[in-house]
Amino acid sequence: MEQTENGYAIQGVNLLEVAETFGSPLYVYDADTIISQYKRLNNAFGDVKLKIKYACKALTNLSVLKLLRAQGAGLDTVSIQEVRLGLLAGYQPEEILYTPNCVSFEEIRAAVEIGVQINIDNISILEQFGHEYGGLVPCCIRLNPHIMAGGHAHISVGHIDSKFGISVYQIPHVVRIVKTYGMNINGLHMHTGSDILDSEVFLHGAQILFDVAKEFQDLQFMDFGSGFKVAYRAGDVTTNIEDMGVRIGQKFREFCDSYGRELELWFEPGKFLVSESGYLLVKANVIKQTTSTMFVGVDSGQNHLIRPMMYDAYHEITNISNPNGTKRVYSIVGYICETDTLGYDRPLNEVREGDILAIHNGGAYAFAMSSNYNSRFRPAEVMIYQGVPHLIRKRETLDDLTRNQVVLDV
Hints:
Blueprint: E1 2-4, E2 7-10, E3 13-14, H1 15-22, E4 26-30, H2 31-42, E5 50-55, H3 62-71, E6 74-77, H4 80-88, E7 96-98, H5 105-114, E8 117-120, H6 123-133, E9 139-144, E10 166-167, H7 171-181, E11 185-189, H8 199-213, E12 221-223, H9 241-259, E13 264-267, H10 271-274, E14 278-289, E15 294-298, H11 307-310, E16 317-319, E17 327-333, E18 341-349, E19 356-359, E20 380-385, E21 388-393, H12 398-402
Parallel strand pairs: 4-20, 5-6, 5-13, 6-7, 7-8, 8-9, 9-10, 9-11, 11-12, 12-13, 15-17
Antiparallel strand pairs: 1-2, 2-3, 4-14, 14-15, 14-19, 16-19, 17-18, 20-21
């Protein structure tokens, strides 16, 4: 989003006009930002055989999935429903990685029948998989490297108390299971968390995978997960992708030399690819002054963007209706019957009732985590692609809330 003489725009498209055309609240995505982020990551690793698997849990809209597939991305999924969305978006089964957690074996079977790459993260499922498929169906193993990393406890997933992955200390047991059933282990995987700044975290995890790889002679790839930090406010320190690409690329090439053949290096970015592309446009319904605070009450809330409440996440907010107004301090709150504060004590250009505010970083874990709490409708989604705004999801209606209800005759 950039400020022009005529207001704020994406690809030259005025955002106030977008809000007027499609209504508010409204999610708007900049396709150019998604493409740019993909190319930046893809170019960072030189001559390594890199595969980028978009972690689609961040944003599963089919148009976003198709956009990334057109760039060459594969897909990282965590549920059978995400797998099927990937197929609808045109991905081939072999382009899809399936990394579930705490699912039934029936769901694993369904994924095998589809033909996606299976990634197993607990010993119970590994034993069942070996018993049922032996070496007929290859699988990857997700390891827990016992690394504490990430910007919040809820998104740190590689530490010793995490539910994710098989502990690296259980590798001898894993090897016994694999040998007993003659399993075909074609990949090793780890994911330590989100909002990771330091390349050393990835290098530490990589060395753990390199050491474990000595136990498996038929690997085709190693997956380092993701967790790259993006900017949420001006001046934020972010992951140096280029430095990471050079350092990890060198270590990976050295590992492949010692392993005896070239493997593929996989990453699973979600937030990195789509977070900064998205904006949630909301309308100021009321300006409410109390004895201590000036509130702006908007036509959205935690039902549309739960990250500030769930993760204490900071999202920049801009008054795109009054870009030259006098700066005043506001707390921006939602219309949900909860304390759903989207931003505390924010200096904004003077907000008037009816103004449109843009909440930044609305691309990742925003619509994807939305709900119908308070029986509110989820918003429409628009993608600006090649300078044209396209509706990619209709706004919900009352029919959507009642469609699956079966009313009891009382």
